[in-house]
Amino acid sequence: MSDETPNWKLQFLSDNASPICPEAWEGLEQANSRPNSTYTVAYGDDPITAEATRLIQEIFETDCEVFFVFNGSAANSLALASICQSYHGILCHPLSHAESDEANAPEFFTGGAKLLHVDGANGKMNPQGIPKILRRGHGIHSAKIRGVTITQATEVGTVYTMEEIYQLTAMKHDYAELDFKFHMDGARFANAVVALDHVAPKEITWQAGIDVLTFGGTKNGCPGTEALVFFDKTLARDFAWRRKQAGQLASKMRYLAAPWIGILKNETWLNNARHANDHARLLGNELAAVAGVTLPFDIETNAVFARLPDGLAKALHAHGWHFYHFADADAWRFMCTWNTTKEAIQALIGDVREFLPG
Questions:
Q1: Other C-beta atoms within 10 Å of 271: how many?
Q2: pLDDT in tens, 12-48
Q3: Residue 134 belongs to what domain range?
Q4: Which residues does 39 contact at the CB level (< 8 Å), separation at least 6?
Q5: What are the phi and psi torsion angles at 25 (to 5°)?
Q6: pTM tops 0.85
Q7: How many distinct structural domains can be found in the chain?
Q8: What is the mean pLDDT of residues 189-217?
């Protein structure tokens, strides 16, 4: 790509492709220049990490344990390893990131816990399918199901409502003898909060029965950093050692924590997600108006899935546009981010119409 080529053709590839937002960048700069953090204690015992932790506790309105790690796969896998032993089973949707995009990391870090599918429409687990899977196997000869991982927002851009989360976490009471523990993969948690509107973060996490959350920063304008939030603090008892053993303990932890200070203040994390969601809705409306294009999922967050006429995706790729194919959903995904522009959307739609076959 030459300097003259507009890089907006990369805008729809992934929210991982977006740059660091100004507020997160400012947080990093301040951590590097503030007198109390220019030189400071390593490995997280510093004032920047303490401030970021405090802000996350304020967001969720509870006393919780917070650990910063480098990426979502580590966050999800280490969270599940805190919930499960090697002989346990973990319920997940077949399209979940834990199942399809983490190179068996959950199984590796748990020492062998088995991922078990609970299918459902629109990327969400259907609680009606759970009793059947709990009857599987032959007692001690099969995995002892204990963990549940919920993706919020889902891998197809949809959102679990508060009621849907409660329907799942009701298993804690319905099957109390199994001691279920719930993990939420919130790589795009901010987008889900915005989509639900007027729902507080606490209402769809710890108050709804979620024990540990992967709070996504990378896809919300931060550099490579995620926050693991333990609402059930007993699960975090030895997590500091688990994080260290997994190579996720940053020596200069303040630089993982500082971007969070930037995005959590003044609700930047929500504003970033709102921008992404709004632009996805705009893009989806434009695509739906094109003959031969269908949208298999409602646009609830910042992902637009589209089924395109034969040959169109190839033509767009040849013209420099970047976006992924999701075979499991039989659709192409266009992802909007905190800085997606209307100009890029109009340029994409212009090429879609130009390259329509026939």
A1: 17
A2: 999 999 999 999 999 999 999 987 778 889 999 999 9
A3: 22-267
A4: none
A5: -65, -40
A6: yes
A7: 2
A8: 97
Are 104 and 246 within one domain?
A: yes
Same domain for 49 and 14, yes or no, is: no
Q: Which tens digits make up the pLDDT trace of 80-115? A: 999 999 999 999 999 999 998 888 999 999 999 999
Helices and strands, number each (H, E), in the chain:
14, 10
CA distances from 86 to 73, 81, 106, 114, 193 (A): 18, 8, 10, 8, 33
Angle between helices 47-60 and 254-264 in degrees, nearest 10: 40
Reported confidence tier of residue 2, pLDDT bands at 50, 70, 90:
very low
Distance CA 302, CA 209 (A): 26
202 CB-near residues (< 8 Å, 6+ apart): 60, 61, 62
User: 146 and 272 in one domain?
Assistant: no
Residue 4 has pLDDT above 90, yes or no: no
Q: Where do runs of H (alpha helix) occur along the chain?
A: 22-33, 47-60, 72-83, 97-100, 105-110, 130-134, 162-169, 171-174, 189-196, 239-245, 254-264, 268-288, 312-318, 342-354
Q: How far apart are CA 42 and CA 250, in angstroms?
A: 8
Question: Is 2 contained in some domain?
Answer: no
Tokens of 228: 């693991």
The whole-angstrom separation of Cα 251 and Cα 271 is: 31
Do residues 246 and 330 share a domain? no
Distance between CA atoms of residues 355 and 308, nearest Å: 11
Residues 258-307: pLDDT tens digits? 999 999 999 999 999 999 999 999 999 999 999 999 999 999 999 999 99
User: Does the pLDDT at position 337 exceed 80?
Assistant: yes
CA distance 239 to 234: 10
Interval 170-183: pLDDT, tens? 999 999 999 999 99
CA 282 to chain centre: 22
| Cβ contact 117:126 at 8 Å | no
Q: Looking at the structure, tell me whether residues 262 and 304 fall in a common domain.
A: no
